[in-house]
Write a structure and sequence with these properties.
By secondary structure, this protein is mainly beta. It contains one helix and eleven strands, in the order ββββββββαβββ. The strands form three sheets. It has a four-stranded antiparallel β-sheet, with no helix packed on it. Bound molecules: FE2/S2 (inorganic) cluster. FE2/S2 (inorganic) cluster is lined by residues 50, 52-53, 55, 69, 71-72, 74, 87.
């Protein structure tokens, strides 16, 4: 058997030393980029770019498991990807933006830790 990685396998993306409690980082998972977050001893993985307009989420802010996008402050819960707030735009700006960008939750990936390795299943 070769070393071809199956789509459903967990693959190592970072080590626990690379990610401090409360921190966000971008990591490579195969040929894709993902977002990693650590809250206490729990690790979360999600798509790396905001579902609104693609901002790099590793530059966002983390409060508990709630991630805030650095660009227009949409908020997502990293436990399940649900939207807590879709942009900080209000009024007409918000209605216009919603015509073009329907709210979409964040894609979350399963994570496990083995030894010092953080593994993600895409
Ligand atoms: S790009 Fe993230 S809220 Fe707009």
């Amino acid at each position: 058997m070769g070393s071809i990685i199956q789509a459903a396998e967990f693959i190592p993306v970072a080590t626990t030393e690379q990610l401090k409690d409360g921190a966000l980082m971008e990591a490579k998972a195969g040929d894709r980029r993902i977002l990693l977050a650590r809250v206490g001893d729990k690790y979360y993985a999600a798509e790396s770019n905001c579902p609104h307009m693609g901002a790099r989420l590793a530059d966002g802010a983390l409060e508990g498991t709630v991630l805030t996008c650095p660009r227009h402050a949409s908020k997502f819960d990293l436990t399940d990807g649900r939207i807590i707030r879709w942009t900080d735009w209000t009024g007409i700006k918000a209605s216009v933006s919603k015509l073009f960008r329907s709210p979409r939750s964040l894609t979350i990936y399963p994570v496990k830790v083995e030894g010092n390795n953080i593994l993600v299943k895409l």
